[in-house]
Design brief:
alpha/beta; Rossmann fold; Helicase, Ruva Protein, domain 3; five-stranded parallel sheet; enzyme binding; carbohydrate binding; SIS domain-containing protein
């Protein structure tokens, strides 16, 4: 049944969906034909889905409705108090935290807001920090199973507070589907610091997580895109509560805030959960979920900074917030004025991928960083190889500008390194309480700081020429960090069969170094194109031409040189800021469209479902079970059985395997290709195929989608 037909009842003025039909996981009826239309038409289907970020879906509250606007005001005022405290000399921080796309965009947004504020102090570049499950290396290579570890979240937040001597901290836990244990545990720590009770609906055998250091004033917020009524109470081993329990406590705290009372004290927590509609590719929250995350965090941060600069201008009031959101909506619509050109680049990219070539992004500053983020999300979403979509960034040597402290990732890396040396487990893998001091004594925090400084090294422009042998060898020899077969593997020279996309904007013009590298790639046979955002100067267009660009896609041209966003002019202290929120939204949407449509055309998407996703955490295991059931027509019990057969390569699932926790299945599945497609073929065959035969059928077929469609039902 299509998602729009699932609106079963109205209760208390709020639309209610069936219990298991979470909006973020539902197939979007607007994109049901995504794999059955030409590339330019597919881009226009994405436009319809993205419009739901502001229009909403299924009668549920969108970002522009009264409830979410009230929560956004609360969050913005909370951010404003921390920014004001920082400006007054306090060690006050706003920490954006999340897993996967949420954590990557937490980094991007915190980095940008610190540049806008422009008030560094000591080693801290500003009050906006980030934490990402799996550490900074997860910006480049998905480490999504890290989101299931509550202790990792607790360790990282404790380490952040200690490392920066935080006196005050506001933790904004981002989880698009409202399920990430990593950020949920950090929000729970802040609630506990305020004496706010959180229900213990999780693992009853789990030890309590270590509290925040005494004397730290802590507050928290949750950002996600499902109604609270649809958030599952999923029990995760070693966590005594659930994300649903944490969300409920945040909502109870926010309800105590009197929005209309002048000077009313803010609550210790709030929750912002507008519905942005089902994703264009079901479950792939890198798209709308990521875009909405970025624009909402930027809105709250920029308005808080603008209030610091102009306290009497009303920047914290709902009308001002609403005006900024409407500007973002306009930018979204203007992006798709270039739908035909975006579709042409997506088609060329698909041809490259089908022929064994690659798609490679090249840009500077935030524009280049968005390319890095888009590339990093293709392997887990589409089952792509690490080398299929890559990115080079001219700011690779300057990835900092954000306070952080990823102790849990350092401990895990140290443990893995010890095992690789044949020493067995060191016992230093993430665990509750007492581990931060031990990590400091063991030097693991030093390793953590090194990772924070060097995560972007594999994105150096020199790798486009395939001659960065020394740098690649140094990366490969590192005892911890990214997988050696992933982004740290040497990149072969970009040339024949590849697509190279230059990324440029007025704030992040393409430097001559990048144009020269692109020109060399073009001479080696690469198809070069450019995506230019906003008003591109004649000099920049000339430089793009010298780089050998065969096509220039221009998006957001009508937004103007002032970015069309008054709050940015009010917030920025000077010309040092590269941030152009509207332009960046345009670029993110365009990049998402290119790689999405390219993989759809390659046959990695069935209808509008990410049928070749990698099962790398508990959430994706549950999502895979539902996906197999939906695409094969079997019930969820049969679907789960077929998925377990595919994961473990067995014809009969033993009782101990069937009873094992999802974490065990994830550990096995994360290292395998074609897990979900094989399960779909098994389910459709009704027991008539072995696992090996199903996998061979997939490998022999033209595309994954073709093999799944042709399987007997």
């Amino acid at each position: 049944m299509g998602h729009t037909k699932s609106l079963a009842s109205q209760a208390g003025g709020r639309a209610m969906l069936p219990a298991k039909q979470r909006v973020t996981e539902s197939p979007n009826p607007l994109t049901a034909l995504l794999d059955d239309v030409a590339s330019d038409a597919a881009v226009r289907l994405l436009r319809g889905a993205d419009a739901q970020m502001f229009a909403g879906s299924d009668g549920l509250e969108s970002v522009l409705d009264a409830g979410p606007m009230r929560s956004l005001e609360c969050l913005t005022r909370m951010v404003g108090e921390e920014v004001a405290a920082w400006a007054s000399g306090a060690q006050a921080f706003v920490v954006f935290t999340g897993s996967g796309t949420s954590g990557r965009l937490a980094y991007v947004t915190a980095r940008a807001l610190n540049k806008v504020l422009g008030q560094p102090r000591g080693e801290a570049p500003g009050p906006f920090g980030y934490l990402l499950a799996g550490g900074p290396n997860a910006i480049l290579a998905a480490h999504e199973n890290a989101e299931d570890v509550a202790a990792a979240g607790a360790l990282d937040l404790e380490a952040f507070v200690q490392r920066w001597g935080a006196e005050r901290v506001l933790v904004v836990g981002v989880s698009c589907g409202m399920s990430a244990t990593y950020s949920g545990s950090q929000v729970a720590m802040c609630l506990a610091a305020n004496g706010r009770a959180v229900s213990k609906g999780g693992d009853q055998t789990a030890p309590d997580l270590a509290p925040l250091p005494r004397g730290v004033a802590a507050r928290a917020a949750v950002l996600g895109f499902n109604p609270p009524s649809l958030v599952r109470r999923t029990v995760v081993p070693a966590w005594g509560t659930t994300f649903a329990d944490v969300l409920e406590a945040c909502k109870e705290s926010e309800a105590e805030w009197d929005q209309l009372a002048e000077g009313a004290p803010l609550p210790c927590a709030c929750a912002l959960h507008p519905v942005v509609g089902p994703e264009a590719v079901a479950g792939s929250t890198r798209m709308k979920g990521g875009s909405a995350t970025k624009l909402l965090l930027e809105t709250a941060g920029l308005h808080a900074i603008a209030h610091l600069r102009q306290p009497a201008a009303g920047w914290l009031a709902p009308p001002a917030l609403r005006e900024t959101l409407l500007r973002f909506q306009d930018a979204m619509l203007r992006t798709y004025d270039a739908a035909a050109d975006i579709g042409a680049v997506a088609e060329a990219s698909s041809e490259a991928l089908r022929g064994g070539g690659r798609v490679v992004y090249l840009g500077a500053g935030p524009a280049g960083l968005l390319g890095v983020i888009d590339a990093s999300e293709c392997p887990p979403t589409y089952g792509a190889g690490f080398d299929d979509v890559r990115a080079a960034w001219t700011h690779a040597g300057d990835p900092a500008l954000v306070p952080t402290a990823h102790v849990a990732a350092a401990l895990e890396a140290a443990d893995a390194a010890a095992k690789a040396r044949g020493q067995g487990s060191t016992g230093s893998a993430p665990k509750p309480s007492g581990a931060v001091a031990a990590a400091a004594a063991a030097g693991d925090i030093t390793a953590c700081a090194a990772a924070e400084r060097t995560w972007s090294e594999p994105t150096r422009v020199g790798r486009l020429d395939g001659d960065d042998v020394a740098g690649a060898a140094a990366d490969a020899a590192a005892p911890a960090g990214l997988p050696k077969l992933g982004p740290r593997a040497p990149m072969r020279a970009v040339g024949s069969g590849d697509v190279l996309l230059l990324l440029a904007s007025p704030q992040c013009p393409l430097p001559e170094e990048a144009a020269a590298a692109a020109s060399r790639a073009a001479k080696r046979g690469a198809w070069v194109a450019a995506i230019s955002v906003g008003e591109t100067s004649a000099a920049q267009l000339a430089l793009v031409a010298t780089a050998g660009a065969a096509r220039v896609v221009r998006v957001g041209r009508e937004l103007g040189a002032d970015h069309g966003l008054p709050v940015l002019a009010a917030a920025a202290t000077g010309p040092g800021s590269e941030l152009a929120p509207l332009h960046e939204l345009c670029l993110k949407l365009a990049l998402n469209a290119v790689t999405t449509v390219a993989h759809v055309r390659k046959g990695c998407v069935l209808g509008n479902r990410m049928v070749n996703l990698r099962v790398t955490n508990r959430k994706l295991f549950m999502r895979a079970v539902k996906l197999v059931a939906d695409t094969s027509g079997v019930d969820e019990a049969t679907s789960r059985h077929c998925l377990l057969r595919s994961i473990h390569g067995t014809e009969a699932v033993a009782a101990d395997i069937d009873a094992a926790d999802a974490a065990y299945h994830v550990t096995v599945a994360s290292a395998k290709d074609l897990v979900v497609p094989t399960a779909v073929v098994l389910a459709k065959a009704g027991g008539g195929l072995t696992v090996a035969a199903a996998t061979e059928r997939l490998r022999a077929s033209g595309t994954i989608a073709e093999a799944v469609r042709s399987a007997s039902s």
